[in-house]
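target protein:
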Amino acid sequence: MPFWLALADREPGPVVEWGAGTGRIAVPLAVAGHEVTAVEASGTMVERAREKDASASWVVGDMRTARLDRRHGLAICAFNSFLCLLSVDDALSFLRNAREHLEPGGLLGIEVSALSPEELVDPPGGPAIRHDFTRDFPDGGRLDRFSLSRYDAATQLMEMRLFYELYKPSGALITRRAHDLTIRITNRDELLLMLRLVGLDVEAVYGGFEAEPFTAESDHLIVLARG
């Protein structure tokens, strides 16, 4: 959040977040006093976001086609929302729409996971379940996420099954759920080319939220481009 808050403090004009989910970025920006519009395709996620904070303006819509009634000084597409666009045409449609909603000279920030070729290759014997993270809660409970994924290099599509296990403070399992997700992996040069194709000027490329250079070891790819 400090990275996005710093951008919002620096760039003039209102902020729009594309693919805002339940407000992980939009809500803190609004709480900090910024005028925020948040676009999210899931009506259920928007309902949950409004319960957190109603000061942002929430729009249920597709980020490729949603039409807003104003332009913005800063646009944000983070937490792999961009990877949910499953073709180059979808990605270009979004980028054109995002550019049309920027003020002249406005800034678009995109953040996606950076995956190395080694991470995309199945291990010997085929895909294996991987532990992604554990999230500890103040009451002593925890959430574990595991994933099983397969990557198709021809289409750049990664099909994933995500498993969520929620535990009580005692360690007893409360619930176990699975969710299927498909994303399209993009790399730095492809993303930069798409931005240029829609008329956005790339201003910076980072490998993390401390504005460190992007390298082969980076876990994140963050690109800032101006309209």
Summary: The first strand starts at residue 15 and ends at 18. The chain has six helices and eleven strands.
